[in-house]
Amino acid sequence: MSKAPRILAVNPGGMTTKIAIYDGEERAYDASLEHPKEELDALIPEGKLLDYACQLDYRKEAIEKALEEAGQLDRRFDAVVGRGGLLRSIPSGTYDVNDRLMEDARVGYHGQHASNLGALLANALAADLGGRAFIADPVSVDEFDSLARYSGHRDIERKSLGHALNTKATARKTAKHLGRPLVELGLVIAHLGSGISITPLRAGRMVDVNNAASGGPFSPERSGGLPLIEMLDYMDENGIGIERMKRVILRESGLESYMGTNDFRAVADRARDGDAAAREVIEAMAYQIAKEIAAMASVLHGRVDAIVYTGAMAHSEYLVGLVHERVSFIADRLVFPGENELESLAMGALLVLRGEEEPRTYPGG
Question: 86 with 154, same domain?
Fold first, then answer.
């Protein structure tokens, strides 16, 4: 009997790289590699304020070291699959990593984000450790309805940039939990992580989403949707250029700005221990999340079968409770905490390796 396909899944985050090995559908190994902020910042080329491609060798070496120390390099891989980044708007699916995909990931076609490293790491690791290089359901999966693309200015179109991988996986889990086909459901899925995206799904399609990099609620380190005129005034008054402001929006806002840390658990602990400032900031985050959920429920004409909470911060009953008390009138809640991204990546690669789905070609689909 032939062995099950061996798959390495790689999910680069802001200051971590999460990896897992799957033998078929069974997880054989996993690890979360921590990357100190000062070490990552030291890699940024002079003259740049935010860059992720420069971390490729650093993260690749960390992954290979961890695998070697865990005794996981005794057998070559059949595939290495990385989380997709801010690429061109493309359909849902598993993609072969090609030169154009890597170039778009390297420059950050729709902006800088750690997930841009997914394709680069998959390609580099596959060259060393064996197998095909894939990405699956990248951040830029686009299933928008036409009305969702309007921004308010004809030259600026709203883009579908959210946590597609975990959102799709969570939607499938919700359908299984409810015992109903996904195509029959209306869901609002709130991914609560280092970025926050609130997605309405109709018949399994992500018909809208706030841009998790620069819209919606503020998060541990991102600003969410800032008031535009005030932001422009702030840049002018403080002599802040565009590239510097992008770093402020993506890395120096949210809890980091208000509380001096991007550690949600630490701020939540302070709030529960009676720190009034910490409590108000957590309540403000919950307030903004609830407003976005209610807005996305309107996209579905209020026909919502469940509000589903997922992502790392969904482990916090404190936060989920604060949010849901404001939106419980819309629908009951389900909570699938944590990020299901490694499993989802591996399953996307497995479908292709087993011949159950054809891989897509970037960017044509």
Answer: no
Q: Are residues 128 and 259 in the same domain?
A: no
Phi-psi group of 137: left, alpha or beta (phi > 0 → left; psi -120 to 50 → alpha; rest → beta): left
The answer to whether the CB of 119 falls within 8 A of the CB of 182 is: no
Question: Of 352, 364, 344, 357, nearest to 132 (Cα)?
Answer: 352
Tens-digit pLDDT profile for residues 118-159: 999 999 999 999 999 999 999 899 999 999 999 999 999 999
| CATH number of 94's domain | 3.30.420.40
**Spatial separation of the C-alpha atoms in residues 123 and 179, rounded to whole Å:** 38
| Banded model confidence at residue 1, pLDDT cuts 50, 70, 90 | very low
| 218 in Cβ contact with 211 (< 8 Å) | no
| 268-327 tens-digit pLDDT | 999 999 999 999 999 999 999 999 999 999 999 999 999 999 999 999 999 999 999 999
**135 and 150 share one domain:** no
Domains identified in the chain, total number: 2
Q: Using an 8 Å Cβ cutoff, are 224 and 260 in contact?
A: no
> Which pTM was predicted?
0.84
Model confidence at 49, pLDDT cuts 50, 70, 90, reads: confident
Q: Return the residue matching tokens 């402001």.
A: 245
Q: Is residue 1 part of a domain?
A: no
Q: Are residue 117 and residue 137 in the same domain, yes or no?
A: yes
* Same domain? 157 vs 61: no
- 262-267 LR contacts (CB < 8 Å, sep 24+): 262/194, 262/220, 262/221, 263/220, 264/220, 264/312, 264/313, 264/316, 264/319, 265/316
Nearest of 135, 43, 108 to residue 348 by alpha carbon: 135
Any domain includes 321: yes
In a shared domain, residues 94 and 168: no
Give the Cα separation of 157 and 127 in Å (integer): 38
Neighbours of 46 (CB within 10 A): 4
Q: Give the structural domain span for 104.
A: 6-141+341-361
Based on the fold, state whether residues 171 and 31 are members of the same structural domain. Answer: no
Are 110 and 126 members of one domain?
yes
Beta-bridge partners for 336: 310
Coil, strand or helix: which one is 327? helix
Nearest to 317 by CA among 333, 340, 304, 305: 333
Supply the mean pLDDT for the chain: 95
